[in-house]
Design goal:
Layout (H helix, E strand, L loop, with lengths): L1 H18 L3 E7 L4 H11 L3 E7 L2 H8 L9 E5 L2 E4 L4 H8 L6 E5 L3 E2 L2 E2 L3 E5 L1
Parallel strand pairs: 1-2, 4-5
Antiparallel strand pairs: 1-3, 3-4, 5-8, 6-7
């Protein structure tokens, strides 16, 4: 009987962990219009977003190790990993399963009718 309660307790704790929303810090330039669309995409997919309007994005990107060739107008940070550009929420979840990576970046800035289109994800080690 005692084992049943231990197993049940573990199952319940896993369910509550799965139900918790992930928090991502989004650092963005104040003058960019596409950043808010990406933030909405993340929120629509269950992320808690902490929005930071920055005056010096270059220093932040350098500190996080974002390669200059992949730089965009906004950078997300989740569990110490960077998310550069319009990386879809599903790919951010995949990134979290690979803690050895510095981050992920999406080249290009195509956002069409509220959806990400034609993207290519780069994983950075």
């Amino acid at each position: 009987m005692r084992q049943f309660f231990v197993v049940a307790g573990l199952l319940l704790s896993n369910l509550s962990f799965a139900a918790e929303a992930l928090t991502i810090d989004v650092h963005r330039d104040a003058n960019c219009g596409c950043c808010k669309a990406w933030i909405s995409h993340l929120q629509d997919n269950g992320f808690n977003v902490v929005d930071h309007v920055e005056t010096d994005m270059s220093a932040l990107k350098q500190r996080l190790g974002v390669p200059p060739r992949l730089s965009s107008c906004h950078t997300g940070v989740i569990n110490g990993q960077f998310v550069e550009g319009h990386v879809p929420a599903a790919d951010i979840l995949k990134l979290r399963q690979q803690p050895d990576l510095l981050g992920a970046a999406r080249r290009g800035r195509t956002w069409h009718a509220g959806r990400l289109t034609g993207y290519e994800i780069r994983q950075c080690t």
